[in-house]
Amino acid sequence: MVKLKFGPATLVAAAFIGPGTVVTASLVGANYGYALLWALLFAIAATIVLQEMAARIGVVTQQGLGENLRLAVQQPLLRQLFILLVVAAVVVGNSAYQGGNLTGASLGARSLWGDLTWVTFFREDVRINPWAVILGGLAAIILWQGQYKRIEKILIALVVLMSVAFLITFALSKPDFRAILTGLFLPSVPAGALLTTMALVGTTVVPYALFLHAASARERWFSGENKASDESTTAALTEAKADIYTSIPLGGLVTLAIISTAASAYFGSNEEITGAADLAVSLQPVFGDLATYLTAFGLLAAGLSSAITAPLASAYALTGVLGWSTNMRGWRFRATWFCIIIIGVLVSSLGIQPFALIVFAQVANGILLPLITYFLLLVVNQKRMGKFANTARQNIVAGLVFMIALALGLRSIWLALT
């Protein structure tokens, strides 16, 4: 029996439940009610499969995905291609998305505590959003400590608080549990919902979370050890599985709560929703002030947690694939996440829409996701994994997930190009 436990997988939940997921889930509920919940159920199952392999690689090899990639891919040209893809999809991509993380967190903060005076920067028409600066600075302070276990505890607290906020809002919205069960277990795709269905899956199954999980699993259980015994590795993997089966489903439950709340407030009405901020404001006349404040607080926690995990994952990925030190207090590691936070603050503050960067990142992610999934399968079946390598059943399940990853990758490329 798997016990409930919070650990590195909570960072994954913090990563995929960001403002982008809140917006996507809100639009799913508002436009299609409970009909697409089966896609969320599948996304959580696929995430569990991929993240379990990533965590197992991190624990057994005591290396992140970046380091394993350098060892597994010996052909120089192919290795350079992988490195370029990782830099493009994870580092450049997260630089663009960090602006959205801080913007979402700022919206939540403004809903709770009001606007702050914008600060003029060099010219009258160039102003800095103080909430973005404050929240970006808070993320930097947390990461600068360079202590994995402390960062993990902070992110666990944020995920728990976010979960409580959205789940109480879910209860206040008086959900239709029969419709929820129907949506979960009787798959259907309403007219015009195909791309939205794939978007819901795509916001949960993301490449950078795999880098984050492998590296954080190593940090959590074997940081500083030279060689782990089979007994200690088995014990760590047992804890890692308990962590995965606690944190990832909790993340799915939060997404379900957001979909259900939006469905209760909007589905079947003439009102339109364009983002998470609309959801927070519109809940007040229907479900009262408490629902509005809880949704705003959930958005703040979701944005801040993603604003911490995105730079952290980028630093792990970049230092790993380039063969640099992955020490969290190393200057290259710190420089990577610091640059991403700065870019995010500027994007959020100045109202920049980095469309070119986002399109570029979507294409890179579309190529990287199936390749990283294949790479996971390659590494987890190598001899160095020993008795902890995949079983035949695990390979079959992972192979099916690979096909879905390929479809998601092609979708990302197609959307970006069109």
UniProtKB/TrEMBL annotation:
Transmembrane segments: 35-55, 76-97, 128-147, 154-172, 192-212, 250-270, 290-323, 335-352, 358-380, 396-417
Record keyword Transmembrane helix present: yes
Superkingdom of source: Bacteria
Protein name as annotated: Manganese transporter
KW Transport (keyword) present: yes
One Pfam family of this chain: Nramp
Any one GO biological process: iron ion transmembrane transport
Membrane topology label: Multi-pass membrane protein
Native organism: Aliidiomarina iranensis
